[in-house]
Amino acid sequence: MNKRRFLAVTGLAGLLPASRSDAAPPAPAGPTLLTVSGAIGKTNRGALDPALDQMMVKHGIRFAKAWTFDAAALHRLAKVTIRPTLEYDAKVHALQGPLLETVLQAAGVAPGADATLGLRAVDGYNVAVSLADARRYRMIVATRIDGHPLALGGLGPQWALHEADTLAAFRDKPLNERFGLCPWGLYHIDVKAA
User: N or C: which end of the chain has fewer CB within 10 A?
Assistant: First the structure.
């Protein structure tokens, strides 16, 4: 190889940005709809910003790192459909979205991890559920109801829920007592290692 050409190519290569395999993936392109923080293995955003993360601050959420999902990122995850009878109209509805465990794995939570999840809704409702129970109940992060996106201001844009009609722990309870572990308007999941 020509020595001058080698030096020129090497010099130009030094001007290019370094590529690192351990660099954090970019944050989602669309608005963040769901943030997962705590005992996670991946990160695509930094610490909570007290000036810009106002709702999280008001809800007492704190984190040093997190994994965020926009609508497209949630849509890319494998989906399941459940058909629970909902307490709001006592009718069966088809709800679709990824398993909660699948969402957590995308954020770097190891399959089979022993953890407690804090599921936080936009209205401040917060419930703790073990990851083992979320698995056992096949909880999903629903993004669609009866073929339509869940709406902000309605039950969405995400709703963590299970198919209460088929689960022994819930099916015999009155309809208004079946969904205590199921916050609609889900926007934050805090993963605490057990």
Answer: N
State the maximum Cα–Cα separation within the chain, in Å, rounded to a whole number: 82
Sorted by where each begins, the domain ranges of the chain are: 29-193
Which pLDDT tens digit goes with each residue over 76-107? 999 999 999 999 999 999 999 999 999 999 99
Residue 14 pLDDT exceeds 50:
no
Q: What is the mean pLDDT of residues 31-47?
A: 97
**Band (24; pLDDT cuts 50, 70, 90):** low
